[in-house]
Inverse folding.
C-alpha cells in the first residue's frame, strides 16, 4: 500500500503498523497511538487526513446499506467518520486493535486476526485470546477475555438458527452464539488464531496438545449443562423448598375437611359448616378432602384424609429450558432485554414460592383449628 505524502507528514516519528484501503485512494492507517483516516482529493473535496487517538472510552457503530459510521467517544467529545459498508469489518478490526492495545486488553505485540459484530455482541479474535463484549456499544470496559493458554477445548455446534462456538476454559465451557451465515468465517478465523498459537493443524491435535480426553470432551458437549453466553438461570430457586417437601404426603386428622383455592368446608357428625377464606393471588390449587363416619354401636370413629398437593408448577430445569429455547429463536434480539426478562422471571418465581408457602401454612393452621373443635 502506497503511503500518501499527507499521511507521512501526519505520522511524524511514528510508524504505520497496518493499513487498509477503503476504496479509490482513501486509506485507514494504524499507528501505535492512533488511527489515521486519509481522504484523497475528490470533485467537491480536497485531500485531507484525520487522526483518532486510541485512548477512547467507548466505540459505537451505525451500519447502513451504503455507509457505516464509527463513533469514537472520548472524555470530552465524540468524533465520527464513515466508510463504505463493504469495508466495515476491516476498519473495525484495525480500530479495535489500536483501542484494545491502548487499554492493555491485548499485548503490545499482539494483533487482531478478525473482529465481528453480531447484533449486540462483539467477538474479537486476537493472536493470544478471544475477547467478547455484549452491549449496544461495540466496545467499552465491560468485556470477557479467554486466553488461549487456558483453553482446554474448542468446538463448533450447529443449530437450527445459530451455530455455537464452545470455548472450554480450564474445563468449563463458554458458549457464544454465531449467526449461521457468519459461522464459517468465524470458524476459520478462530482456527487460524488458535492453531497458530498452539502450532497444530486440527481440533483433534489441539485436544491432544492440551491433554483433553476425546471421549470425555464428547460427553461434556452432549450434556450442555454449563454456563452459556447469556448466563441464564442464576437466582432462580425451586418452587418447593426442602422444608416444605417434608410435609408432603398423608396427614392424619380427627375431622373431615375440604380446602380448595382458599375455600374450606368442615363436616362432622352433628352437621355441616362452610367456612370461606380467600387466598389472594394463589396460582395453583391445593385440595384437602376427608370423609368421616361415626359408628353408633361402638362409638369408634374412622377417618381418612387425602391430601393432593400440586407438582412443582415450574421446576428450575423447565424454566431454564424455556428461556434457552426462547434465546435460540430470538438470536440477534436485544440480549440486554432478555436478561431483564430473566430477572423478572426470577422475581415471579420467588413470589410464587412465598404464596405457596403461605397457603400451605394456612392449610396446616386450619387443620389444627378443626382438631381443637
Amino acid at each position: 500500500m502506497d503511503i500518501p505524502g499527507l499521511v507521512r507528514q501526519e505520522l511524524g516519528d511514528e510508524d504505520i503498523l497496518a493499513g487498509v484501503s477503503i476504496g479509490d485512494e482513501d486509506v485507514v492507517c494504524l499507528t501505535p497511538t492512533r488511527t489515521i483516516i486519509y481522504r484523497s482529493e475528490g470533485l467537491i473535496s480536497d485531500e485531507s487526513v484525520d487522526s483518532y487517538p486510541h485512548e477512547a472510552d467507548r466505540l459505537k457503530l451505525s451500519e447502513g446499506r451504503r455507509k457505516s459510521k464509527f463513533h469514537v467517544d472520548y472524555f470530552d467529545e465524540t468524533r465520527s467518520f464513515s466508510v463504505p459498508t463493504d469495508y466495515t469489518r476491516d476498519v473495525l478490526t484495525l480500530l479495535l486493535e489500536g483501542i484494545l492495545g491502548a487499554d492493555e486488553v491485548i499485548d503490545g505485540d499482539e494483533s487482531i486476526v478478525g473482529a465481528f459484530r453480531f447484533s449486540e455482541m462483539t467477538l474479537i479474535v486476537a493472536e493470544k485470546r478471544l475477547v467478547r463484549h455484549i452491549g449496544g456499544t461495540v466496545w467499552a470496559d465491560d468485556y470477557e477475555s479467554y486466553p488461549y493458554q487456558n483453553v482446554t477445548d474448542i468446538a463448533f455446534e450447529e443449530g437450527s438458527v445459530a451455530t455455537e462456538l464452545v470455548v472450554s476454559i480450564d474445563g468449563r465451557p463458554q458458549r457464544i452464539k454465531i449467526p449461521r451465515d457468519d459461522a464459517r468465517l468465524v470458524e476459520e478465523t478462530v482456527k487460524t488464531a488458535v492453531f497458530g498459537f498452539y502450532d497444530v493443524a486440527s481440533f483433534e491435535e489441539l485436544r491432544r496438545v492440551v491433554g483433553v480426553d476425546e471421549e470425555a470432551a464428547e460427553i461434556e458437549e452432549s450434556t450442555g449443562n454449563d454456563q452459556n453466553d447469556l448466563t441464564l438461570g442464576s437466582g432462580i430457586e425451586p418452587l418447593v423448598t426442602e422444608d416444605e417437601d417434608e410435609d408432603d404426603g398423608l396427614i392424619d386428622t380427627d375431622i373431615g375437611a375440604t380446602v380448595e383455592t382458599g375455600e374450606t368446608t368442615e363436616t362432622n357428625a352433628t352437621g355441616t359448616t362452610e367456612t370461606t377464606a380467600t387466598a389472594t393471588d394463589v396460582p395453583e390449587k391445593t385440595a384437602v378432602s376427608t370423609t368421616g363416619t361415626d359408628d353408633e354401636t361402638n362409638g369408634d370413629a374412622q377417618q381418612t384424609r387425602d391430601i393432593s398437593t400440586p407438582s412443582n408448577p415450574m421446576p428450575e430445569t423447565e424454566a431454564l429450558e424455556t428461556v434457552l429455547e426462547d434465546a435460540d429463536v430470538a438470536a440477534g434480539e436485544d440480549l440486554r432485554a432478555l436478561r431483564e426478562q430473566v430477572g423478572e422471571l426470577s422475581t415471579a418465581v420467588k413470589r410464587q414460592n412465598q404464596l405457596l408457602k403461605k397457603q400451605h401454612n394456612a392449610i396446616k393452621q386450619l387443620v389444627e383449628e378443626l382438631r381443637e373443635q
Observations:
- DSSP finds eight helices and 19 strands in the chain.
- Residues 49 and 307 are 81 Å apart (CA to CA).
- The two ends are 97 Å apart (CA to CA).
